[in-house]
Write a structure and sequence with these properties.
Number of domains: 5
Largest sheet: 8 strands, mixed
Structural class: alpha/beta
CATH topology of the largest domain: Rossmann fold
Number of helices: 28
CATH architecture of the largest domain: 3-Layer(aba) Sandwich
Helix content: 25-40%
Number of strands: 39
Strand order of the largest sheet: 1-2-3-4-5-6-8-7
Strand content: 15-25%
Length: about 900
Amino acid sequence: MSVTPASGERVHALLTDGTTVCVRPARPDDQKAVLRLYSEMSDANLRLRFFSVSRRSAEQAAARVAQPEDSGYRALVAERGGRIIGIAEYQIDAGKTAGSAEISLAVGDERHHRGVGTLLLEHLISAARAHGIRTFAADALTDNHEMLKVFADLGLRAERRFDGPEVHCVIPLDDTEDYRRSVERRGQAADVASLAPLLRPGCVAVVGAGRRPGSVGRAVLHNLTTGGFTGQLYAVNPAATSILGVRAYPGVSALPMIPGLAVIAVPAEKVAQVAEECGQFGVRALLVVSSGLDAHQSRKLLAACREHDMRLVGPNCLGLANTEEGLRLDATFAAAHPARGSAGVAVQSGGVGIALLGGLERLGIGVSSFVSLGDKYDVSGNDLLQWWESDGRTDLALLHLESFGNPRAFSRTARRVTRRMPILTVDAGRTQAGRRAAASHTAAAATTTMTRRALFAQAGITAARAIPELLETAALLHSQPLPAADRVVVVTNAGGAGVLAADACAEAGLNLPPLPPGLVDDLLTVLPPGASTANPVDATAAVTEEQLRTCLDRLATHEGVDAVLVALVPTAVAAATGDVLVNALTHAPARRSRTIAAVLLDQDVPVRLLPSNTGQVPAYADPQAAARALAHAAERARWLARPPGTVTALEGIDTSRGRTLVDRFLKQHPDGAWLDPRTCAELLDCYGIPQSQWAWVETEDEAVWAADRLKGPDGHVVLKAYWPGLVHKTAQHAVHLDLRGDAQVRAAFRDFDVRFGHIMTGAVVQPLAPRGIELFAGVVQDEVFGPLVLFGLGGTATEVLADHAARLAPLTDTDVHDLITAPRCAPLLFGCDGTGPVDLPGLEQLLLRLSRMASDLPQLAEADFNPVLARPEHITALDARIRLLPRRAQDPYLRRLR
């Protein structure tokens, strides 16, 4: 799918040095500006572009931008400061290879080596794909090394053929994983460069710092001064010359040096004006803590940032901080300075941010950098993930996101980053009330729980239900190795505490296996008499520190144990009083290779990290908190152990015919509609989705003839009425099952004619399906997330039981496996009832083809296959409904700013 500037849209994107350009389609009135671009090029670069230094060639090239779109010509320009600094264009030659276009590229002399040409080519490739172009061809001089390097580094398989002083390049435009990774690498480098003035500024100015206590701007200035910011610091206030000992100036333009970062804390109506002044002065990043901007003020703020190359955090935010030694930037109005540490934190809610900062400080984890995103006009969680990936300090990422700008790009980034460090988030907005509050709070679209959880599961993100759970899990992931699997042994000095811990583990989905005989014998030799070596292991109140330590050491080295949960209570037994038993956890002879966690029921805080001679051990006051953290750790280990999924290549797909069919239907139904049975079947055929045999009939006689032709060995058929807008056939009693013989078929058709004759346009005849498992497969096109594929138990009970799983398209092979195994009905598919498994490869193919159809066709608003009959020998869609809406395609991986 592609959305490109070829559609008339202006987009902004980052260059390799972190600066911003506007990419847009060339217009007829751009001729003079394009000619100026060429006229300012050196003779050497003119020769490389036109194979000569003739100015006549430049004039002819500039004149081409006036060609109409239907000429097969398209051009995109890069614009900065109102001047065109680059142009990329293609021309389809009808006389040459179908699906191919000749391309050319030019970048102003002073803009070389900043990625202008590569960025233009990426957007041109997206535009070309959207118009059916499969190959680019380009001619260059053999000494045009820079251009040849641009082609080679795109990430596409460029082929070269040398012919004297020229080289002919052919570039297939396949949307490969290598190409996407190349685009991501370029995007990450540009993103990180653009964030440097924001998170590592050498100079900061606070605009709107008040002289009297109580203002937000003054609070930010106070934190910058008391936090020990090592760069230059200024205040902007026309009524003061000094605030909190910081020199103040009447305006941004009066500052003695250009700040990298300007903190804006002025009334909403003045924000855009201050932003414009900052941009004109050369400021590279804005932090807007002001709130209450209306739509017009918001547009002006963002326009100023785009026009003048500034990244923006906020508005309506708590601020940002970077605890890096030698910088110590605290540009927040929080009550306390963030503690220095290794967790990267990005939140949309200032209140959540304060809670996380406090919790991480109490745990001793601290933060590497903290960003309160607020209304998130520009800088997002995706930006911060890429910063933390490269900053060399962050080993744990914590996110609180109430909305997503580009979920598929976020998902790709998260999948990459979470293989380096855990990414934890709060699953906010799980209920309708919560989603409504999130949308109101952030002025952004909230999304459904199922869609958001699909994103988290596919991206390997650990999702907690609340802030305490997030901190509990962070404590364990920060301090302990991941368990290899989910086998947990509970050890306790009190039977009741062990039972509570065992229940908590089982409820969290962890496995508490019985200990093998050899390990049982080994433990009995070291534990006091009366100890129980079932799981839980009850070491009794008589256990000594040395006995408990030896027990833990032997469990923590046994191959059948993945994690040990130690539940301890203080007793009156002399050997077990005070912190003596805790020493068995924290004073180990060597670092234990298994995951260790403690439950201290008398602990006065929910979670803390116990310092040990080999690291830290997380201790929880509640067994359920410990079990949840262990379960999250085990799930992360499972995710990391799986190879990255791949999107499987499918045979028998006719995307071109499918798109033509959709376009034709939407021309007849410009507002969108449900497909009629014949069009629906034709579309499914384009994607090789197996359907039951069927026939369309409009009369009683046609129904009888079709029934005779389609009846199965038992002679039974099904008759389904149809009229435009019919959605739930069963609810409307528009289905007759188990019909046998001409008389029953005629009677059924007459019944439809009597009840629905005024609206019915026809009916569908199908053979009665054999017995099997009735499943459901479908698609919902989310406005923000794109297509979501759903799968689960089907039939008439599908909505009542709601036994469904979901994953975002395009599905990989691992996504399909997760979809099939996640619903509660999954054991039936694998033959748990003794009937043998259903056609699992066929089921995988159905879901992959459904995913491909949804990915190819953004106009597909809904698809509902119910029931899908699953049998050992085949998978068949018995009924299918598809709704189309007029929608423009979007390329979620195209580099662009929000």
